[in-house]
């Protein structure tokens, strides 16, 4: 084999030499992958925000003004109208009362069945809200926060048991982070300070571990839940004869489940 043939064979085995420069296909693949990650992250974040907004909007309306409450009000008026029409046609009063009693009982059951449904929905919304809530990052500069933590910890470690309680008296707990509150609790327990319970009570009251409980949405959920539970207990104890619903003029109207009251008004 001549030298020229050998060179040709080696060249053929190697294939055509690659052009020097950037592999644009590989670069485009990386760029597209990063773009997909950013888009997915943005879509996920938007979905999370949509969930929180939906929970807020669906629960900020007073239960008495809900669409279901308006339907209850309308149904009550239809029962009253039935009684009027029946009386105008000289239907026997006992028969009218029997039918009005039946319709009012069905209305009452529908109302309280919906309360059970609303309580289940609130429980679901509370779980969804706690899972999707993300508090705003309070640390604009992580390095500054780290140095601040180190200073706080060093200062705390330098305190004697005698000086610890007087040091607490000078602190504004509202300005402390959860990290600092936890350090104080740990130090107080180590010193067996009677003020440890005071710090821990503050932590529980301000929900340092569950910041979502300090939001208006969460407070609204709890308020609605409490109102519905009061109605549910009253129903269970057979102590509820009247309910408040939304009237057509946008005001609150009180309606009852006493058929005799209706018959006396017509």
Report on the architecture of this protein.
The structure is a single chain. With 266 residues, the protein is mainly α. The chain has helices spanning 3-14, 24-59, 67-88, 93-132, 142-157, 161-169, 178-191, 196-205, 216-236, 259-265, and strands spanning 242-246, 252-256. A two-stranded antiparallel sheet has the order 1-2. Helix 4 (93-132) runs antiparallel to helix 9 (216-236) and helix 5 runs parallel beside helix 7. The chain starts with a helix and ends with a helix.
Topology, element by element:
Layout: H1 3-14, H2 24-59, H3 67-88, H4 93-132, H5 142-157, H6 161-169, H7 178-191, H8 196-205, H9 216-236, E1 242-246, E2 252-256, H10 259-265
Antiparallel strand pairs: 1-2
Helix pairs in contact: 2-4, 3-4, 4-9, 5-7, 7-8
Give a summary of the structure in a few sentences:
With 266 residues, this protein is mostly helical. The protein has helices at residues 3-14, 24-59, 67-88, 93-132, 142-157, 161-169, 178-191, 196-205, 216-236, 259-265, and strands spanning 242-246, 252-256. Mean pLDDT is 79; it is low at 35-40.
């Amino acid at each position: 084999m001549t030298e020229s043939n050998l060179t040709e064979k080696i060249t053929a085995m190697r294939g055509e030499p690659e052009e020097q420069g950037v592999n644009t296909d590989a670069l485009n693949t990386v760029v597209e992958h990063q773009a997909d990650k950013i888009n997915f992250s943005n879509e996920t974040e938007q979905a999370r925000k949509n969930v929180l907004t939906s929970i807020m909007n669906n629960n900020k309306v007073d239960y008495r003004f809900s669409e279901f409450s308006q339907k209850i009000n309308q149904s009550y008026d239809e029962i009253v109208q039935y009684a009027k029409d029946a009386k105008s046609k000289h239907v026997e009063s006992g028969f009218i009362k029997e039918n009005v009693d039946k319709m009012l009982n069905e209305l009452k059951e529908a109302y309280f069945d919906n309360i059970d449904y609303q309580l289940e929905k609130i429980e679901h919304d509370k779980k969804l809200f706690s899972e999707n809530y993300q508090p705003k990052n309070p640390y604009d500069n992580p390095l500054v926060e780290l140095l601040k933590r180190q200073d706080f910890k060093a200062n705390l470690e330098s305190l004697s048991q005698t000086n610890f309680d007087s040091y607490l008296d000078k602190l504004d707990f509202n300005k402390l982070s959860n990290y600092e509150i936890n350090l104080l609790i740990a130090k107080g327990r180590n010193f067996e300070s009677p003020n440890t319970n005071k710090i821990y009570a503050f932590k529980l009251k301000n929900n340092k571990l569950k910041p979502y409980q300090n939001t208006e949405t969460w407070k609204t959920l709890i308020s609605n839940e409490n109102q519905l539970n009061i109605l549910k207990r009253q129903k269970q104890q057979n102590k509820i004869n009247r309910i408040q619903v939304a009237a057509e003029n946008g005001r609150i109207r009180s309606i009852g489940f006493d058929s005799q009251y209706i018959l006396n008004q017509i």
